[in-house]
Design a protein that fits this description.
The protein has 720 residues and is α+β, with helices and mostly antiparallel strands. Helices cover 54% and strands 10% of the residues. It is built from 27 helices and 16 strands. A hairpin with a 2-residue loop joins strand 8 and strand 9.
């Protein structure tokens, strides 16, 4: 095994040397010798250590270790795909301004706004080669509106798609674009007042790689998988063999007071810098609804009502931000006190508090008016309750406990329409922890439903509500069928055409329905009229061809499970870059709310730094939800193995169910949808990796029993 590992490591590094800048024979030979030397070191020292660690387990456990590590390595290889060795393909693009026009159009203009790379960044406009009468306008756009037909050419290399951006308006004509020899015809006319940008995803042709290239790719991927699996095995064996901390437990009241301070201070600095907050179009729309009392159920009614209540105290979005900062600080303090109660060392608690303060997702979300923020705080609170029940059997399930669970669960269901899975996961976790109390758990779950439903009914009777078109969640799936060309019956075609013209295949993007719904051609009134007919239509189309739906789910959910950012987008905090380079944190169309920074010297650096972290080379580490999800699951597995108990796995159950439900219906790759995963991971991952002392006494609610399993001095006593 060690020899294979050594050769694989050498192969990984050596094959990497085939790419620039290691082109000379001498540099390649030097790297090969270095790889062989490294392989010899691994062969001499790594295998003996791995062998000693593995022999501590039985043969069945060794096979389980190897099988799980192999599975995780394969999953991570898919989640972080390696693009090494992929042949670069030429992507020729031609835009043809035909000079023809729709009879309703007042001209035959063709506007080419530019090209975006796979990460959404604009490509230099100098790469275009005009043929005929084209004019280059400010910002790098090209327009053809005079004279005979004209063509615009571009060609680039790589293996990732590009996005061609065109403009539709009342003077637009008919254009053709050719990619890899395939030509599509587009009518760019849009009625006056509905000007919009048309985005076209341009894919490379299927690679015609030689057998030698495929062998090279296969060997490289196999070597990477073996090296990654070995590193995971080493890390897992080391982490699970570490003894629990032996330091004196911290005073929980002091932890609860001191731990939140860094988070509150940093979030306060954010609020002062971007005062009165960061507001997206959803935020300003909900703010106006709260002011008027005429509410749209697209934003959960309970959240809008909560904003309306805070407006009575202070009519400023800063009031909402202050409430969110206070809630986040309180939960950081309570969570860190719970970690101290479980025997987590003071260094790890200090690290947890520091990471909470420095994580950019917390600083920006705390000052953003989104329903996802209070929803995520509720989920974190529920997970802390589960953690306390799993690690300390002295936790009493008394009246305050049940009341807090019911209130938090009801609020989670009221703050977001998709709050149910996480709430069910919480009560399921509690039922698994104390099975003799399953009746009380079931009763509390029913009470949560009753409280949530009753609150929603009371609010609906109090305020004027615009109903939410639930069919909007199906737009992405229907768009997948339209783009894939699923056969349509006349009535089905007429219905879909009424929602959105089919000539551009619904402007479909697999990772987000925003491009379809907000491209200026989507009819929201038609969506309301046909709301009940959309699900049966989707079922019929999927019965004819299920492939478009499966492909859509795999792509739309990629932000949840994929570490690397490819052609999919990543919708982070609301920050706008103006034509002059100025940065804004309130949507440009908002007329009444204005940014008045109280820390102007910090505002620009904070926003510039945040935009820098959103680029693909850092976004996977700081913003993509896949990383905290994987870290949470891996740390949970390490903690369960180290302490020989399954009880800690119940803490992750609400997050797992929330993520699974979200993966099926996620409308766009917004970080905010998975903000609960960030919070729960930041709270528990450091503690689970470092270790705890699960040595609490048995609960007074259940008879004493002998410990089920003991691991060194770390013992967890079952409560029943």
């Amino acid at each position: 095994m060690s020899m294979l590992l050594a050769l694989s490591t050498a192969g990984v590094l050596t094959l990497g040397a085939w790419a620039p800048p290691f082109q000379s024979l001498g540099s390649r030979l030097l790297l090969v010798l270095g790889c062989l030397t490294l392989g010899a070191v691994l062969y001499r020292f790594l295998l003996p250590w791995l062998h000693r660690q593995l022999t501590r387990y039985s043969s069945a456990q060794q096979r389980t270790w190897l099988g799980v590590v192999t599975l995780v390595a394969v999953i991570l290889m898919v989640a972080a795909p390696l693009h090494v060795m992929m042949p670069a393909e030429r992507l020729p693009v031609t835009v043809h301004a035909t000079g023809e026009r729709n009879p309703r159009s007042q001209g035959s203009e063709v506007w080419v706004l530019g090209l975006l790379d796979a990460y959404g960044d604009p490509l230099p406009p100098d790469g275009w080669r005009p043929e005929g009468n084209w004019e280059r306008r400010a910002g790098g756009a090209w327009v053809s509106h005079l004279g005979p037909p004209a063509r615009l050419h571009w060609e680039g290399g790589g293996h990732k798609p590009r996005v061609l951006q065109l403009l539709t308006h009342g003077f637009s004509g008919i254009a053709e674009y050719t990619v890899n020899g395939r030509t599509e015809r587009l009518d760019l006319y849009a009625p006056p007042g509905t000007d919009a940008r048309r985005d076209l995803v341009l894919h490379h042709p299927a690679s015609a790689s030689t057998p030698t290239a495929w062998i090279r790719i296969t060997v490289t991927l196999a070597a990477h998988a073996l090296v990654l699996g070995t590193l995971l095995l080493m890390m897992g064996l080391w982490l699970t063999s570490r003894p629990p901390p032996s330091n004196t437990p911290l005073s929980r009241p002091w932890v609860g007071l001191l731990a939140p301070m860094p988070t509150v201070v940093v979030a306060g600095i954010w609020l002062l810098a971007v005062y009165p907050g960061m507001l997206s179009p959803d935020s300003t729309s909900q703010w106006r609804d709260a002011l008027s009392g005429n509410m749209d159920d697209a934003h959960p009614l309970f959240h809008t009502t909560s904003i309306r209540f805070l407006q009575k105290l202070w009519e400023s979005p800063a009031m909402v931000a202050l409430a969110q900062i206070a809630g986040l600080g309180a939960l950081v303090g309570w969570g860190c006190a719970s970690l101290a109660r479980a025997g987590v060392s003071r260094g790890i608690i200090a690290l947890t508090a520091t990471v909470f303060a420095l994580a950019p997702v917390n600083g920006t979300m705390a000052v953003t008016l989104w329903k996802d923020v209070p929803f995520s705080l509720c989920i974190l609170a529920l997970c802390i309750w589960v953690f306390r029940s799993a690690t300390d059997t002295r936790t009493r399930w008394d009246v305050p406990f049940w009341v807090s669970l019911v209130v938090l669960g009801a609020m989670a269901m009221l703050f977001r329409h998709n709050g149910l899975p996480a709430v069910v996961g919480t009560f399921l976790a509690l039922g698994l922890l104390r099975r003799e109390r399953y009746k009380a758990v079931a009763l509390a779950l029913v009470a949560t439903f009753v409280v949530a439903s009753g609150t929603r009914w009371v609010l609906s009777q109090t305020y004027t509500i615009k109903p939410f078109a639930k069919g909007m969640t199906l737009v992405g799936f229907l768009g997948a069928h339209v783009a894939a060309g699923t056969p349509l019956e006349p009535g089905e075609r007429a219905l879909l055409e009424e929602l959105h013209p089919l000539d551009d295949k619904w402007n479909y993007r697999c990772f987000s329905n925003v491009f379809t719904i907000w491209d200026g051609r989507f009819d929201m009134d038609a969506l309301m009229r046909h709301n009940e007919a959309l699900l049966p239509l989707l079922v019929r189309l999927t019965q004819r061809d299920a492939a478009p739906v499966l492909s859509h789910v795999l792509c739309s959910s990629s932000v949840l499970w994929k570490l690397s950012q490819g052609s999919d987008h990543l919708n982070g905090p609301p920050i706008w870059v103006g034509p002059d380079g100025a940065l804004g944190t309130i949507e440009p169309e908002e007329r009444h709310l204005r940014t008045t920074s109280h820390l102007p010297a910090l505002r620009e650096p904070l926003l510039r730094w945040t935009l820098r972290t959103l680029r693909s080379d850092l976004a996977w580490l700081l913003w993509r939800p896949a990383l905290p999800l994987y870290l949470l699951l891996l740390a949970c597995a390490v903690a369960c193995i180290r302490h020989r108990t399954w009880r800690l796995a119940t803490v992750a159950l609400p997050i797992v169910l929330h993520t699974a439900a979200l993966a099926a219906l996620i409308p766009s790759p917004d970080v905010r949808y998975q903000y609960p995963v960030f919070l729960v991971a930041l709270m528990f991952v450091p503690a689970w990796l470092a270790g705890m002392r699960l040595d609490a006494a048995p609960s007074a609610e259940a008879p004493r029993r002998a410990p089920s399993v003991a691991h060194d001095t770390s013992t967890l006593r079952s409560a029943g």
